[in-house]
Amino acid sequence: MTNCAACENNAEVPAEVLSCPALLFLYYRVEQILGIRASVDALIALNKYLEETCKGSFIKNPAAYEYLLTSREQIFDISKFLTVNETYFFREGAHFNLLASLLPELIRSGRTLRICCAAVSIGCEAYSIAMLLDHQIKNGLNFDYNIDAFDVNINSVETAKNARFSENSLRTDGSAWKNILNLYLIKENGFYNVSHEIKNKVNFFPHNIMRGLDKQYDIIFFRNSLIYFTPKNRLTVLTNISESLFTNGLLFLGVSETSSVKHPLLASRYKSDVFYFQKISSESIENTAFPDNIIKVNADRRNRQNSQYKQILPKKEEIFVDCGEITNILKDDDGRQNSDKVLSAFKYSNLSSFSGANLVSCIITLLNMQNLENAEKILEHLEKNNSSVFTRFLRAEYYFLSGIAEEAEKFYHEAAVKDKFFWPAFYRIAIIASEGNRTRFEYKAKKTLESIDLWQKLEPDNRINYECFMGGFSPDYFKRILENKLL
Questions:
Q1: Angle 272-150-387 (CA atoms, 0-180°, nearest 5)?
Q2: What is the pLDDT of residue 303?
Q3: Mean pLDDT of 451-478
Q4: Distances (CA, A) of 377 to 127, 319, 342, 382, 410
């Protein structure tokens, strides 16, 4: 598994970090992005790399540092300074014995078994699972499977794809695992190559577990990595994982990690002297003391993920949204009359007569009234029929008002990427950043000012009136707010 080179989750920031602005900045940004608290040595190595890449120090070029740390691709590269690779084939063999014993029940449905290896390091775990399953098939079990495997360290992912390992990856004692390895590993020039039949069963890719997963699985392995996350981020990671399991799906954690795990969607199980977890249905957590906003956010994510497994329907024509029309609607009693009409029609599943502007105006009005439940209902309908920058922004607004800044920032960012002139998204990102690191806020504020300037340089006829998303206030108003904050 990939073990993060992190210090224990103590409350105190190391003195070496506090005394250096660059290390302090990296310390908190790494925790925010990857969920871990990096060691001093790891931060020093990362800072040296960034100085060489940016051709300047953090003090001289903070924006360049921020850019590298907000690029998803760069994070995959930077993670090599923050993770180490300690893994070998059939590590913690009890889990593989357990998996073999559970297979007859798991394959009863007859469909392809979906398995995910999270924080897979250089791939030994994923290939071990594939070898075990293929061996079971050759010994009489009739089923098919596929395995997704990811790690945030792109170097580890490339090593895994190459499927070529040294003797350090083999730690067997002549047991059944050694016998299985002999069937699938081909020795060549002192190295061991995984056979093509096994190599082709595993899909490796770089990914950050803090961003959640896009699919659902019957089994997820996430072993010997959870302990490196901060307590707050452990909850985020476990929620991301549990929401990516089918109901009754299984989660395997490291043997030393299971005792401290408590999550409302994960029930502890014990078999063959091994603890593991099973996903329970959301209905069974109604009376659990767990933050409502986290349950709601992840229910939303689950619904979006589940949709990919439904029958593919003919694509609907996208609803067009006119910002000028939105402005006119909101002028009348703050859009409340329109909102009442849309909600009334929604009760009878009859929204076909309403324009995109009607729907967006309704959502804006409901959000302004803090009527988040109904705003969410209309937003979900709009998202099915519109993929524009406006739906991304409204989804972010919903999360922002729900007090879930991390999810909000993700959707604000998607909106900003879709349209560099859409200054409301840039402004919201800056406001979220203002609650944290000063340098990050300054960078985000400047990006907002750049977006507003770009918008203002457009010919008047080419400007879209985005003010309707910001209470009717002009971009100059928000420029003054940011400029004052930057003083």
A1: 120
A2: 53
A3: 89
A4: 43, 16, 11, 9, 20
